Structure formats: C-alpha cells, structure tokens
Automatic annotation (TrEMBL):
It comes from the Bacteria. CDD domains: GATase1_PfpI_like. It comes from Mycobacterium asiaticum. Residues 8-177 form the DJ-1/PfpI domain. This is Peptidase C56. Belongs to the peptidase C56 family.
Length: 187
C-alpha cells in the first residue's frame, strides 16, 4: 500500500456503542496509507462496539482519554457513528470542546452516519454542506447545515457520509484530504 500519509497522526474519537465497521474500516485505510492512528475516548480502558447498533461486536482498546489529548498532536480526526456513541460524546464537555477546537484548527474532520451529532453539539455545522444518516438530518438542518443526500460531502475541512454503505467513498475522501494537508501539521 501507499505510504502517502507517513508521519501523519490521526485521532479517532469514539465511545461505547460505536459502530464497529465505521471505526475499523477508516482506521485500517489510514494505517495502510502509513498514518499512525490513536483511539481516543471518554476514559481509559476499552469501549464496546456494536453491529447495527444492537449486536455486541467486541471491544476496542483506548489509546488515551480525550481529556489527555491535544488537537496539536493530530493531523486529522475521525468521528464514527453508531447511535449510542455520538450520543455519549455530545454529553461530555471535554469531547465536545476537542471536536470544536479540531474543526476550528482547519485540520480535516471526518464524520460518518450518526457521527455528525457531535459536530452539531460543538456548534460547527452552521452554513456547512453536509450529509448524515437520515434520522439526524433534521438536527443538522436545525443547527444551520445545508443537508444533502450524497455518499460523501466535503465542505472545507469537514467530510461527512451517510452510513456504512458509503465507507469506501468516505475513506477515499479522508485519505485525499489528509494527503493534501502539509506534513507535520500536528505539533
């Protein structure tokens, strides 16, 4: 595989209830392209994954709590979905502040399925063209986003997709955006 992302550090922010494939597939694509990936969460230890929101799908080991992370440490951020995962994240002030600061930094932020819920809570969607899982599109509209039904949307530094069926396009857009980000943008 290409090493076009060598030297890039990417954070994935997730909590219990994360949709397994929405964490695994972007992580694997990033690692295959040479990036170093860290899983951040609300606490140390492990988070519980799900398939289709309801079926237990194992655990992922957390690399560090988001409270110990800095936007300066990373070149990009991925927000996977699953209904419960972003619902937990948006209730945590530290996670919401991290996401807001990441978007404000101008570095790539990619959110899929229900992942944009955290972007809504962070107050960073107004005026942005976005997509998401159908059930949260009203929330995006109410927060001022211009919502479309497309497999992947890139608006500035925010990348969004609708569901796991869009993972291929989502990962491609994420890799392309990160490849265009100057090397070593993480301090």
């Amino acid at each position: 595989m290409s090493n076009k992302l060598d030297g890039k550090n990417i954070a994935i922010l997730a909590a219990d209830g994360v949709e397994k494939v929405e964490l695994e597939q972007p992580r694997d694509a990033l690692q295959d392209a040479g990036a170093r990936v860290e899983l951040l969460s609300l606490k140390a230890g492990e988070i519980e994954a799900r398939n289709h929101d309801l079926e237990p799908a194992g655990q992922f080991t957390v690399d560090r709590p988001v409270s110990e992370a800095s936007v300066a440490d990373y070149d990009g951020l991925v927000l996977p979905g699953g209904t419960v995962n972003p619902d937990k994240l948006r209730l945590d002030d530290t996670a919401v502040s991290f996401v807001r600061d990441f978007v404000d930094s101008g570095k790539p932020v990619a959110a899929i399925c229900h992942g944009p819920w955290t972007l809504v809570e962070a107050g960073v969607v107004a005026g942005r063209k976005m997509t998401s899982y159908p059930s949260i599109r009203t929330d995006l509209r109410n927060a001022g986003a211009r919502v479309v039904d497309e497999e992947v949307v890139v608006d500035g530094n925010i990348i969004t997709s609708r569901s796991p069926k869009d993972l291929s396009a989502f990962c491609s857009a994420l890799l392309k955006q990160l490849a265009q980000t100057p090397a070593g943008s993480a301090q």
